[in-house]
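Form 7-S
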Amino acid sequence: MSTTPSRRPWHLAAGSLAVGSLLLTGCVSNTPEPTGDTAAATAAAGGTANDEPGDTVRIGFTAPAADHGWMSAITRAAEERADSYEDVELVVAEGTNDVNLQISQVETFINDGVDAIVILPFDGAALTDVATQAMEAGIQVINVDREFTSPFAARSTVLGDNYGMGVSAGTYVCEQLGDTPDAVVAEIAGIDALPLTQDRSQGFEDALADCGLDVDNRVAADFTVQGGQEAAANLLQAAPQIDAIWNHDDDQGVGVLAAIEQAGRDEFFMVGGAGSANVMREIQEGGSVLQATVVYPATQAADGVSLARLVVQEKNLGDLVSSTVPRQVQLFAPVVTADNVATYLPSAFES
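Output:
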């Protein structure tokens, strides 16, 4: 296993993920709140008690190969988040789509005696047993994005909201077309076999039903540029009239937009998915069929690093009454349009 340790003083990168990690950067410890001069100094510095260094936490990190803009951003954000703490040492395993190799990486972390493991599994079910072994060895496991099949495999789980993505996209389409009951709505999904794709489609269908619309034309792609282009070309050929398209993934959306341009179609508007920087720039510039995108945060592993640090150091999310870190944190799926794109663009990933 190829690993890269990462450790830097917190002041070098403390603001790098301010937008994406607001949920976790506002934490405080379980100890009484600082008072008097200590509290004033902490507030003046823009920090909290949780920002104060504690015992060093050694965290192993493993994720799939960075062969997709979103996945690349996941790993980069985790590294930047770890660099923001002087008491965190992140050991990064080489990204892999080989389930057996990822299992081996976790086994190496267990043998090395790390304090915690943050893992975005290529296959949650396949990694459940080895994650459970890590927990049984006293290592705190933070599961990211793709869930394990056992509650004993992780101390806490950080999730995006796939169903919520569909709901957000469908709600936006309803806002634009709700007064047009005969509107034709199309959907370009990701990989149909994946639960995340199924959840996104179900959320979209449910939201559309609320305003009397449904999905008239649907095709599935594979989260790649080529797959998106092929699926979109098939869709456009099959549907001579479309009013709105929701594309599940902004990386495959590069190919979708290429197919749209090649077909010379512009009678509809399009909503993207995931929230890539190139999509947001296109929304910001205007003049495109692309009007909006739904964010699927690429900060999940970064939040996982923060949670791992809190759990090992026995701290908590400061705004909660509960004295421990929650078992699950699910991030919101906001819609980005020309009206709010400036807020989200700084934390967006590059497709």
